[in-house]
Specification:
By secondary structure, the chain is mostly helical. The protein is built from 1 helix and no strands. The radius of gyration is 51 Å and the shape is rod-shaped. Keywords: Coiled coil.
């Protein structure tokens, strides 16, 4: 009977060790799973954070692009306005010159005289 008791104690001892081993393995696996879950959560937070930063940068770039585009359009408008003013000044100067020439021609017609310079046609 002593031998059977020793055998029973040995089996019981082996079961306790196996139970402890299984419990520790399960604890270790759960801990590893929690750590992996934490890492996955951290990774997702980092992705979201980086996506937000990227979106912010893209929005800033779009704002800068629009600002620069508007600035270029304003410069083009100023150039167009300056060009129109110069054209108007040239036209006004030309009209003034034409009016002066017309007045001189009328004066010569009324006085029955010839201009001093006739572009090589008239004899001076």
């Amino acid at each position: 009977m002593g031998e059977a008791l020793k055998e029973m104690n040995k089996v019981l001892h082996e079961r306790n060790i196996k139970a402890w081993e299984d419990k520790e393995k399960a604890k270790s696996a759960n801990k590893a799973q929690r750590m992996l879950s934490d890492i996955k959560t951290w990774e997702e937070k980092m992705k979201i954070s980086h996506e937000a930063k990227t979106m912010k940068i893209e929005a800033e770039l779009e704002s800068i692009r629009q600002h620069k585009h508007e600035k270029i359009k304003n410069e083009e408008a100023q150039i167009q306005k300056a060009m129109e003013q110069k054209k108007a000044a040239i036209d006004a100067q030309n009209q003034k010159k034409v009016l002066e020439i017309t007045e001189k021609a009328d004066k010569h017609r009324s006085n029955n005289t010839l201009p001093m310079k006739c572009f090589g046609i008239c004899a001076d």
